[in-house]
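A protein record pairs a chain with a discrete description of its three-dimensional fold. The following entry can be read in just this way.
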Amino acid sequence: MAHALDPVHPRPVPLADVARAAGTDQGAGQATDQGTGQRTGTVTGLALATADLRPGMLFAALPGRHGHGADHADAARRAGAAAVLTDPAGADRAHRSGLPVLVVDDPRARLGAVARTVYGTDRLPFPVFGVTGTNGKTSTVHLVDALLRRLGRRSGRSSTVERRVADRAAPRVLTTPEAPELHAFLASAAEEHVGGVALEVSAQGLTRHRMDGVVVDVAGFTNLSHDHLDDYADMDEYLRAKALLFTPERSHAGVVSLDSAAGRRIVERATVPVTTISTDPRTPADWRVRVLDEAPDGTRSVVTAPDGTQIAVDSPLIGAHMAANAGLALAMLATSGIPLPDLVAATTTRLDVVVPGRMSDASLADGPRVYVDFAHTPDAFAKSLSAIRSFAAGPVAIVLGADGDRDPSKWQAMGIVAATAADVVVVADHHPRFEAPAPIRAAILAGARSVDGPALVVEEPDPSVAIRRAVAEVGADGIVYWAGPGLTD
């Protein structure tokens, strides 16, 4: 089964070249076309799962949590694989398939180099923009994409929400796809003659080899806040993972927001040229963002470039933090070489950008305004609630829960922020996965009830009951902010 965004016209690459990219000269004999039985000696793609294989592709048989990919080498042969890439532990099983086998000590660490060779993505005919940070990555990627289109360019984007090349789209699987899928996506973008691609880059994408082989033209940093401490030992390790994007192996230049304390640390660690941006007038920065108006249907701001050029931005995205994301997107495009006058001309009317699951208006004709948002960190709650407060005419309620099998150290902080910023806090179940939901709710409730304030804090495990309770509590003039269900992993 091909991915929707694989290249339409894959190019054959000599298996010997693929072997060299993998770091081995063993197993690079002649591959066999399983359809014709003819020796081909070439590879036309790369897949991690047999379901994604098409005839002529290389099958990467990697060790997994519950088994080894080499156990599926026979299935790969039947699917038409040209060869197998694996580690010493899988070598014997791979060889029994009768396919040529490339054996390396750590095949996952070589996937990026192999994918770059297979898909020819070492030199791309368009700029690539990579955005990292805790919150705002998805919105910034969609803003870069919207601006590219406003500039008259065909574009591509890969985000938590979806991956799209020109008019072709596919649902996302991971925030940052595995290296074979990412390089296939870039090769497809080249086929479509796009004028730029925006990528959402997660910390895991950087430390787990998913971004290997990709060097973005401009890297952007939004912010850093409490998240993913189930994957990283502490916030320092989490920051170091993000900072990897600002090295010559990953980017040519960077734009760093100084709106979180981590921004300055990213600048200090960066080994590529970086420019800075901030919404805080007290913070020295190269680019400045000034919010003019926050409203229920969008945000207006002015972005000032280092030379004093002012770019007016009218965005349908809600909140000062979205104005910051728009400023970051503009600065990244300018850093790539797009002239400022072109960016000024591109923003003369309201931007056409929709970020599914981000502050989506789910209000009915009658009753309070209801926003559904994928916020899942304390910092994201604080920013979204602050945005809502700027135009709320009545009380504000938050309905929240937390994912199970994820970082539990943020649950109490989520409750604290909720009870500090909202009038009504309703704690419900949200995607507990394999965890018991009651302890998740209890941790959030403990945080909320530790706040010495007037907020009403209630527990309603059933999300459908929880949202009705929030609507009833705030009344027709209020606002309900439903955090979490906008999109789930």
Summary: Residues 320-335 form the longest helix (16 residues). The chain has three domains: 13-119, 128-346, 360-483. The chain has a mean pLDDT of 90.
